[in-house]
Amino acid sequence: MANPEGSPFPAEQRLEQRLGPVLRRRDQVQAGTTDQRLLDSEGDSQWVHTDPWRVMRIQSEFVEGFGALAELPSAISVFGSARTPAGSPDYEAGVRIGRALVDAGFAVITGGGPGAMEAANRGAREGNGISVGLGIELPFEQGLNPHVDIGINFRYFFVRKTMFVKYAQGFVVLPGGLGTLDELFEALTLVQTRKVTRFPIVLFGTEYWGGLVDWLRNTVVGQGKASEGDLLLFHVTDDVDEAVALVTKETGR
């Protein structure tokens, strides 16, 4: 029979130990109890860097994100490069897209950073709409751009990515780098596998995205790694009005 928690016998003499839902046996038995470790003020502070504690941080990020965005009206997430210079054609397109989405009745969600993200937030703010920025903790500090009205900073990419999809009815993707591609292909995968439904994805900039679309068609689909129908999961355009019309139509607005 197992010794009860708090047994006076040394850990090495105990064959079984139950720590909440966790069962430990033989050489995996730990000395002391959970309460004892909690109340021990002289204990090792490394516990704040352990995986169980990270779970609590992850949970808190989900709670904060859900709480802040739960009452957000219909929204579109806009992605694009943080390196897009202010005043460039891509930046100005972002401003026009942000404003047009607001005019169509959407809130605008971005990654909250500079460049194309700032442009879309700026357009939303200038259109008197709701401008949301979901930032991320990075080694190089960016901070939220000044056009964000509701801002949340996340530690974990996967929590942030959940918010982009959960509280948006579609994506508009401006020219961007690896982070933009990450968000794009995550969304495409979710739609392809039917984890989300009625989720329009619009790539803005035919010249920029043309090479990627050709590769998907000629190589990925051409070699049987995806189906021809997967190319219908997204649209490509250079027209702001068409981009907004596509997300509006597919979301049923």
UniProtKB/TrEMBL annotation:
Keyword check for Metal-binding: no
Documented EC number(s): 3.2.2.n1
Keyword Cytoplasm listed: no
Sorted keywords for this record are: Cytokinin biosynthesis, Hydrolase
Q: What class of enzyme is it?
A: hydrolase
* Reactions that this protein is recorded to catalyse: 9-ribosyl-trans-zeatin 5'-phosphate + H2O = trans-zeatin + D-ribose 5-phosphate; N(6)-(dimethylallyl)adenosine 5'-phosphate + H2O = N(6)-dimethylallyladenine + D-ribose 5-phosphate
Q: What domain of life is recorded for the organism?
A: Bacteria
Where do the record's region annotations for Disordered lie? 1-43
**Entry-linked InterPro entries:** LOG, LOG_fam, LOG_family_nucleotidases
Which Pfam family name is an example for this entry?
Lysine_decarbox
Q: Which family does it belong to?
A: Belongs to the LOG family.
Q: What's the protein called, per UniProt?
A: Cytokinin riboside 5'-monophosphate phosphoribohydrolase
Which organism is this protein's natural source? Streptomyces xanthochromogenes
